[in-house]
Amino acid sequence: MTISEINYKKETTLEPINLGQLTTLNLGPTHPATHGVFQNILQMDGERVVSSESTIGYIHRAFEKLAERRPFYQITPITDRLNYCSSPINNMGWHMTAEKLIGIETPKRVDYMRVIIMELSRIADHLICNSILGVDAGAFTGFLYIFQQREAIYDIFEEICGARLTTNIGRIGGMERDFTPSIIAKIYRFLDDYTLALKEFESLFNRNRIFMDRTIGVGGISAERALNYGFTGPNLRAAGVDYDVRVTTPYSSYNDFDFDIPIGKNGDTYDRFMVRNEEMWESLKIIRQALDKLPAGKHHADVPDFYLPPKEQVYNHMEALIYHFKIVMGEIEIPKGEVYNCVEGGNGELGYYLISDGGRMPFRLHFRRPGFIYYQAFEEMIKGSLLSDVVVTMSSLNLIAGEIDA
Amino acid sequence: MVNTAEAPEGVEGPGFFATSLDKVVGLARKHSIWPLPFATSCCGIEFMATMASTYDLARFGAERPSFSPRQADLLMVMGTIAKKMGPVVRQVYEQMSEPRWVIAVGACASSGGIFDTYSVLQGIDKIIPVDVYVPGCPPRPEQIIDGLMRIQDLVEKEPTRRRDSSEYKALLSSYGIK
Amino acid sequence: MQLTNRSKLVVNKELSWSEKLYLPAIFSGMMITIKHLFRKKATIQYPEQKREFSKVYRGKHILKRDEQGRENCTACGLCAVSCPAEAITMVSAERKKGEEHLYREEKYASSYEINMLRCIFCGLCEEACPKDAIYLTEELMPANYDRSNFIYGKDKLVQPLGTSAHPKTYKPYKK
Amino acid sequence: MEILLIDKVFLIVIVFAVSLVIALYSTLAERKVSAFLQDRLGPNRAGIFGLLQPVADGVKFFFKEDIIPNHADKALYILGPSISMITALMTSAVIPWGSYIEFDGRQIALQVADINIGILYVFAVVSIGVYGIMIGGWGSNNKFSLLGALRASSQMISYEIAMGLSIIAVVMMTGSMSLGEIVRQQHGFNWNIFYQPIGFLIFCICAFAECNRTPFDLPECEAELVGGYHTEYSSMKLGLYLFSEYINIFISSAIMSAMFFGGYNFPFMDLISSPNLLAALGLIAFFAKILFFIFFFMWVRWTIPRFRYDQLMTLGWKYLIPLALANIVVTGTVMLISSSFK
Amino acid sequence: MEEVELNKEFITSQLTSSFGHYIINSEETYGMITITVDRSKILEIMNYLYLDPKLSFTFLTDLTGVHFPEPKDELGVVYHLHNLPANIRLRIKTFFPKSDSVIDSLTSLFSSANFMERETYDFFGIIFKGHPNLKRILNVDDLDYFPLRKEYALEDSTRTDKDDTMFGRG
Amino acid sequence: MNNILFLSLSLVSIFSAIMVIFSKNPMYSILFLVLTFFTLAGHFAIFLGAEFLAIVNIIVYAGAIMVLFLFVVMLLNLNKESEPNTPMISKIAAIIAGGMFLLVLFSALTNQIYAPEPLYTKAGEIGLVKNLGKILFDEYLIPFEISSVLFLSAMVGAVMLGKKDLKQG
Fold it and tell me: Count of domains in chain E?
């Protein structure tokens, strides 16, 4: 027997360490930490995760099929329910996709209004992700403090469009109504209130050693792996890649505003938390700039073929009534073609791949859901970590079931 | 398995003692409904808003969400239940201990809502009995609280022995739940 | 990877000496929470206190009457077509002689039903209506015990006679 | 002898009732305090200010279906909550609630049993308490419960050591292991906290750990283990578990006040001559301290995040135990030096 | 590495020089370069696009399927690639008949392709050769059809509360 | 009164000691062992006046060591199926070893039983912490110190063993 053989034997005897003692733990689909519904079947060695398998699709709602059977303007309420934490971004992304296909140029005022609304909903999205991370780490109170600010955002949305969460905000070609002075005042008040609330939230978490210990080095992913896994948004930025659709391909006049892209170092949970946190500050900056510079003008583009005429004209003028009927019945000229358009959603690059055959409904509409794509890295991210780490990693990724399962 | 209180001997039927006991128990249960938030999608976020400071579900004694079905009194199904999820909902319902109530929050849970698609269950009342429906997509927190108060009304009026009655058993068996 | 010149590193993972001790952060956190103990509470005690909704809130539907008490709806079906949840069904009928005080147009909806459990309150029907007939009011849809109670017919939807179109129920669309 | 027995039985019944009532209302207090810390109102619909809330919860528990899962170990499943409850209640026997009252010409000590190793007794009972959680968690035959039970037991063992060591310093100073004697020595404002701040800190942290409270609530943390060891429990068995947790908090608070904050002693107590008045005031002082600590428990719980399992172990073994040992050494040295100067 | 502008002509010529007639078509629609390729070389082409230092399309933005019932009843897979530093997006399309819906998997190149290919399989029944775990991802495992193909209905047949005769629905 | 107490305590302790061996489930064995410790502690406290010893017995054995045992059993999840088949040789060895132990015990105890002075007459003196400490640090100082050194080395050894295991795993 040679030495190499002995070594080989030693290794093989050591290899299957207590394989018989692995326990299977079913995390989900109704586990409190999943916030939505996924199943993770964990193979555990004591508290340590040896391997895992994710199952998704527990709220698969067939968005893409549904979008093929609804006229263009009816798809807006469907997009609401994709990433329901930041519905307005989904709405706007869809409007911009349709506008790109049709070739509508929106006035500056519409762009600025969209930027304000999108940044508000980005705050709402990041806020819920970060505070839920706090809840999963065991601190419930910060969540309730910051949620009051989300309630303020709801208030603003309600004033703009009439609903809190599933907003159905805006229309193809513009906004459904102009900002009233009270909305603008409310947003200004929110900017001031939120600054205080966010500072308070930060002092509860940012430098708290218990929280830092829980999150630093947990669920990390390198920039290379993250790119290979198709990460985008805050989770990619946490790994150190400053990819942001708002900057690389500016839409809705994002290049008018001055803001930074916060990035992290190792892509671990603390990085993600801090990047999201800092992005909220940047969003506040953008909103303030947009509000200060809000240009005058109409709140919609001048496209009578696609944008509903005002109601008074519909009641009183035949021409407007005809346009009205045509738009609602969907008998409008929509060009053929295929478009890919993306916006920076709460979780990353939210893409819409639209194929139109000229009919009243899209021939095919595919949503590039960032959450769906980066969720597959989860198995790799939690390998070898503790059960508690699984939970905080999961909530720091901001997994929204509606977005993942589509 | 149902071990609700047995009436003392001699008080068969709704005698005075039994009815006043029912009243007390009903009142107590009414104020201590521990929900199991079965939140799958958008309505879950509005449920968070209901739990949060502005609406504060705690005022009704219902702020302790028990994620373990054994400890819960009220199953709040919030959000779309896909056909893949259906068996899970049912299992959770079966694991809950009596008395249990179910509230379907939002259009999706109640009827499928906008998602009249091949993959979505068209209302959870196809698999488990539902006590209260809350419309809205998602319902406002006010509506969720409203739904909870409807449940409270039900709970308060329910006799302690209802769960042993043959009607109730027939209801369950019509859903195939033993 | 550096893609733009606007990136900003925001993470500092080094713990300072005092942060390592746990206690200062815990103490400052506790100071924050104790401050909230004495603060005004944010709770709105629904149902006793009601929150004010915005003027454009999309709640329960109403079928409006005009100033003379006639129903505005002409059963054109645009609302049903525009409904993404396909929750609206209606049957149209011709107005007969002598019903002019009831219906404003020649056609009217003899039955008009909204399945409130299907409805997602998106407001597209209100937007699609060319006759100033259907509106989403600020009233909330109440919860109910039975599924069949959620099919709202004309009896529940049409604005009651004698009520004026007061601002609570009447929202001018697109000012 | 017989009169003494009657006194004791009377006292035991009172202590028992008081612990139950305090634990009962601790549940309400927890909900109210958390609500107030979080800008909410908390339960306020069951009775005025929600005062009947605990009663409602209790009645609900009693009338809820009691499921014993088919796959559970029946005997252990029932034994678990019972042990938890019994051990939680046993500790109150050695706590000196007050000095003594004069009644019918006799002096009646307000302590059920002033045994000379009171502290050790407390430790023994507490160390048995973990069986309730372990047995219940194992008997449920559920993986979350089992993990919760494992966490509970390793946590308890680890923190008991640091807790014991932190107390040794106090025992060295007072020279007695009787709680009654320790409290008597802190007459007036001569409280142990001024001599043993680090000991108190360690003891306090360990008490949090022994009571499974945030930041050490790993055995039942909701986000990871659903309900931890009591995941499978319903109705009154769950009630007993939750209840025993609050009794433990109450007892821990009482021991902390007795050991470090003078128990029933309060400043300027020598100005009062009537023993009965003194006892009454002492009782009030003692309960004020206890209630403060109960509030403190809740305050901490609703402020900070929880530890991770391995961090918890690191904290216990690598920081608290050495710190406690150092505390003993320093205390010994100081005692030696000061005695040689006397 | 010299600076080259990644425009349609350059990319097409690069690809054609290596793959010749496997590159079927190239166009630019709505500001995005779209190249239709033959499915038999898809993995090689992707590999080339990934590894070529001038092209280096290293980020797979999106992968999805399309079903064209008319005129030939064929399925397609559409890839969206992104060169992040140069900020150029590229759409690769490939088509094949429904009867023979097999294509090489990209999982060896992009980890992100895993779920997306599973989803495409789940929706369209396109089989990705070499995928490590090709099974349904969103739908229930025992679904016996591929729901996003055009011939299948969207609606759930069990619902009872809708009137399909209304306004041309159904 | 005392006799009844003694008898019942002894009965319970013997019964639970037997059950430790005869219960199939290791979980139950451990719990019965804990009960045995309790009854023994009762003996110490009530009949020997050794309260300190009794309490320490409970803390150390029931509160710490048995919890660890329980911990291990829970981790390993022992049940009937996974119980390894013990070979005949070890069974025989166990019987022989047990028999020898019994012999030793018996001979030791027979000496004690006929000891001129029953132990419990000293009740109230040896059990107290003060007396115990005095004896330990006075009469038995050297054995005490030696055993503490032994203890320390055992601890160091345990730490070393644990460390090594960690590296390999």
Answer: 1
Return the amino acid letter for F82.
S
D144, D223, D308 member nearest A135 (Cβ): D223
Tokens (6 digits) for A27: 């995390």
Position with higher pLDDT, C9 vs F1: C9
Whether chain E has a CB inside 8 Å of the CB on B113: the answer is: no
| Domain contains E121 | no
- In three-state secondary structure terms, C90 is strand
Which domains, from first to last, does chain A contain? Answer: 23-55 (no CATH), 63-404 (1.10.645.10)
**What is the distance of C-alpha D25 from the center of its chain?**
15
A50 within 8 A of A16, measured Cβ to Cβ: no
**Structural domain boundaries in chain B:** 32-174
Among E67, E78, E136, beta carbon nearest to A353: E78
Q: Which two tokens stand for residue F152?
A: 């320390």
- Which pLDDT value is given to residue F146? 92
Cβ pair C25:A260 closer than 8 A = no
3-state SS assignment for residue E146: coil
Handedness of CA F66, F67, F69, F74 (dihedral sign): positive
What single string gives the DSSP state of each residue in B83-132?
TTTHHHHHHHHHHSPSS-EEEEEHHHHHH-TT--STTB-S-GGGTS--SE
Q: What is the pTM of this model?
A: 0.88
The neighbour count for residue A78, using CB atoms within 10 Å, is: 26
Query: Could A158 and C120 be called an inter-chain contact, meaning their C-beta atoms sit closer than 8 Å?
Result: no
| Fold type of domain F1-78 | Four Helix Bundle (Hemerythrin (Met), subunit A) (1.20.120)
Give me the helices (H) in D38-117, please.
53-62, 74-90
Tell me the backbone φ, ψ of residue A355, rounded to 5 degrees.
-110, 125
Q: What is the pLDDT of residues E72-107, one digit of tens each?
A: 878 899 999 988 888 888 899 999 888 888 898 888
Query: Which of C1, C3, C115 lies nearest to residue E161, judging by beta carbons?
Result: C115
ipTM (interface pTM): 0.86
Tally of domains in chain C: 1
Taking the C-alpha atoms of residue A356 and residue A394, their distance in angstroms, rounded to an integer, is 37
Interface with F, mutate which of D77, D120, D142 (most F CBs under 10 A): D120
Q: How far apart are CA B142 and CA C46, in angstroms?
A: 7
Residue in the block written with tokens 């979080």: D38
Q: Is any Cβ of chain B less than 8 angstroms from the Cβ of D57?
A: yes
Kindly state the average pLDDT of the residues A133-155.
87
CATH number, span B32-174: 3.40.50.12280
Q: Flag whether E55 is in a domain.
A: yes
In a domain? residue C42: no
Window D:152-211, CB contacts with C under 8 Å? none
The answer, yes or no, to whether A and D have at least 3 beta-carbon pairs within 8 Å is yes
Q: Could you identify the residue written with the tokens 């009454």?
A: D280
Report strand pairing: E88-97 vs E32-37.
parallel
